[in-house]
Amino acid sequence: MNYIKQSIPRDFSQQEELVNNVRNIINNIIENKDEALFQYNIKFDGNNRTDLRVSRAEIEEAYKLVEPSLIQDMEKAADNIRRFAEVQKNSIGAVDHFEVNQGVFLGHKIIPINSCCCYVPGGGYPLYSTALMLAIPAKVAGVKRIAACSPTMKGTEAIHPSTLVAMDIAGVDEIYALGGAHAIAAFSYGTEQIKPVDIIVGPGNQYVAEAKRQCYGQVGIDFVAGPSEVLIISESMGNAEFIAADILAQSEHDVQAKGILVTTDEGLGKQVLREVDNQLATLETQEKARIAWENNGEIILVDTIEEAYEISNEIAPEHLEIHVSDETKAMESLTNYGSLFIGENAAEVFGDYVSGTNHTLPTVRASRYTGGVYVGTFLKTCTYQKIDPSGISSIGQIAYNMAIGEGLYGHANAAKKRLK
Questions:
Q1: What is the mean pLDDT of residues 215-230?
Q2: Of the residues 221, 251, 275, which one is the last residue of a structural domain?
Q3: Which residues are noted in the entry as Zn(2+)-binding (predicted)?
Q4: Is residue 289 part of a domain?
Q5: What residue numbers bound the domain in which 117 lies?
Q6: Helix axes 15-32, 181-189, angle to 10 degrees
Q7: Are 330 and 309 in contact (CB under 8 A)?
Q8: Do 155 and 121 belong together in one domain?
Q9: Of the candidates 332, 300, 337, the residue with the CA atom closest to the CA atom of residue 319
């Protein structure tokens, strides 16, 4: 393995300060509730509103401020996301009356989580697509109370109109005008205006991610997300123009975003390096994308495609694109990724917006142990059992013996009473 371009190591020296700052915010929300929310809204967003829940009138007004063509595009994207979520839900089945031993019947039920908060970022861009990606699977799952929140536009009391419209299209029940770590704390512990939820989903900046980490246990979360990332594996047939465009699409998210190419072809790697520079020259978001690419971007040259798959599995990227001749072998070899994009036409941008898969995905190697947000994120698999007298005969003595072996005599007694 050799680097045609290598990233700069990241500096984590400020991590302790971040942890302490977020802890103080959470404690302030727990103690002072709405009053603390008002203070943070003013401090971080210049948002002076005291009625945090967005009214129906505000939502209707937002529709008037969004281009009808964009609303139609959102509705089409929502339809694709919804249809795929419905197929996924139908694939998650209950188990009923499985007789594991004579008279011992087991099963499980698929039960929707009762309430959720969809956190929709609103810092650099109005990420209305995230509202669709989070709330629609929750709706399909059958979540009874779907809340959502997003920071207001800087210096205003209003969430971006396109984000409000997307939340409404997605079926959100309650919308709140706040964001940041204080929003996570509010939906975890509750305030006068905000009733806590059972799970919080959605990406955000480092303060949001740290707040989710610290509040986990009090509330469920999808995962702790870090900077966005894409890894592209390509053999010599890869289209350098497409690859460069996909790397820059990722890089414009954030100065911490990461784009990586792993290739078996040195010529392609160098061509992509030149193409990134060419496209950056005319990219409207080049200021942010250039920093991300220069600091975090990588081009890795490998001897074999199998080595590329090993590197990818170790990195465990959020988005993984493959431009290879044997796609079947690639899919068998690749195991760690948030979402897979197969072939040069399956650009990450389509998954981000409209193809129907979810774009809320695990980052910083979390795809080693979890997938992205989907309808199953909002479902619980809860087991049950029913045992008749013949079941006591088949397993009762075993339970008694094992309890005695562990020294748990109360357990043993409970089994013994039934053995009589």
A1: 95
A2: 221
A3: 250, 253, 352, 411
A4: yes
A5: 15-221
A6: 40
A7: yes
A8: yes
A9: 337
Residue 106 has pLDDT above 80, yes or no: yes
The CATH number linked to 142 is 3.40.50.1980
Copy the structure tokens of residue 417: 């009473």
Residue 138 shares a structural domain with residue 103: yes
Position 123 pLDDT exceeds 70: no
For 378-391, write each residue's pLDDT tens digit: 999 999 999 999 99
Could you give the CA distance from residue 140 to residue 89 in angstroms, rounded to a whole number? 8
Query: pLDDT band at 124, cuts 50/70/90?
Result: low
One domain for residues 104 and 153: yes
Whether residue 2 is contained in a domain is answered as no
326 shares a domain with 214: no
pLDDT digits (tens, 9 = 90+) for 63-83: 999 999 999 999 999 999 999
**Model confidence over 159-217: pLDDT tens digits?**
999 999 999 999 999 999 999 999 999 999 999 999 999 999 999 999 999 999 999 99
Task: Please check whether residues 132 and 259 belong to one and the same domain.
Answer: no
Looking at the chain, the whole-number percentage of residues with pLDDT higher than 70 is 100
The number of distinct structural domains making up the chain is 3
Same domain for 283 and 395, yes or no, is no
CA separation for the pair 244, 269 (Å, rounded): 10
Which residues are annotated as catalytic?
Answer: 318-319
Which is more confident, 312 or 123?
Answer: 312
* 378 lies in some domain: no
| 154-189-25 Cα angle (round to 5) | 50
Residue 110's contacts (CB-CB under 8 Å, 6 or more residues apart) are: 92, 93, 94, 379, 380, 381, 382
Contact 61, 351 (CB under 8 A): no
109 lies in some domain: yes
Q: Reading across the β-sheet that carries 199-201, which strands appear in turn?
A: 174-177, 145-150, 115-119, 199-201, 220-221
